[in-house]
Amino acid sequence: MKVINNLREYKETPNTISKGKLYLGDICIDGLKEDKNRLVRIYLPSNYDSANNLSVIYMMDGKNLFDKYTSFVGEWGVDEIIEERLKESKQSYIVVGIDSAKTDIGRVCEMLPSNKHLASVDDLPLDLESYGDVLGKFIVEKLKKEVDTLFKTNKDVSYIGGSSMGGLFSFYLGQKYPSIFKGTLAFSPAFCLYQKDYFKEELNKINISNHKLYLLVGDVEYENQFVYLTNYVNDYLSKNKYPYVKYIHDLNGHHNEDFWNKYVEDCLMFFEEN
């Protein structure tokens, strides 16, 4: 049974898509409470036809990655970053962006690894449902397999990434499937959704491999509430178990796409280091 249906090239105008091609596909994620039917956005770089099998980066909040006209408050500009790399003869990638649920609560729940020991954050209730495992299994067991079938991919080298809830979810998924994802891009991860003591306790259960982790956080993110646990994760993993971690703490970093855009290239360079 097909996972990606009605695959078509994105041709809406105006748009801010770079030189490659962006494709849209319809997907259905069974098991989610809301918005099971949504879009997946697949960016093929301009050198796709002539390239060997390319590594794939799976990213959350797909509508915010490529086109400012589909994004909520601005785009990451991932396609422009990849095309600039090509000008410098650097490695290119296929990027698969998965659209999130339409409501804030739906988005939080589908990327929440667990609904136990939640902290009081903003207006979020403490009785949230958790569908992180459902979404994770869909990406690993269904979406990745079909992407590898449809496109010229390096089946052995994939990455997972996202920001805020997507950063938390990507951190979780990268640790749960280290043989699938060789690296994690966790920008402004929402670790603060969990009680500090519980979160620290959970770190002890991490099974470390050769997986690479890139952590980014800014001081100007919702009154600094993202910083404490991200700092702790970096310190803990670096000192105890994790040999492949890079951490950036930007004192001027805001919680938005402009901030995250500035560090995508550095993250890719880190992934490519031997």
Shape field: globular
Helix content: 25-40%
Spans of 5+ residues with little confidence (pLDDT < 50)?
A: none
Give the amount of beta strand, in percent.
Answer: 25-35%
Primary descriptors:
274 residues, alpha/beta, 26% strand, globular
Description:
The protein is α/β, with parallel strands linked by helices. 32% of the residues lie in helices and 26% in strands. The chain is built from seven helices and nine strands, in the order ββββαβααβαβαβαβα. The chain has helices at 78-87, 104-110, 132-150, 165-176, 196-203, 227-241, 257-272, and strands at residues 5-9, 21-28, 37-44, 54-60, 94-98, 153-163, 181-187, 212-220, 245-254. The protein has a nine-stranded mixed beta sheet, with helices on both faces. Strand 4 (54-60), helix 1 and strand 5 form a beta-alpha-beta unit. Helix 5 runs parallel beside helix 6 (227-241). It is globular. The N and C termini lie far apart (38 Å).
Compact description:
This protein is of the alpha/beta class.
Outline the fold blueprint.
Layout: E1 5-9, E2 21-28, E3 37-44, E4 54-60, H1 78-87, E5 94-98, H2 104-110, H3 132-150, E6 153-163, H4 165-176, E7 181-187, H5 196-203, E8 212-220, H6 227-241, E9 245-254, H7 257-272
Parallel strand pairs: 4-5, 4-6, 6-7, 7-8, 8-9
Antiparallel strand pairs: 1-2, 2-3, 3-5
Helix pairs in contact: 5-6
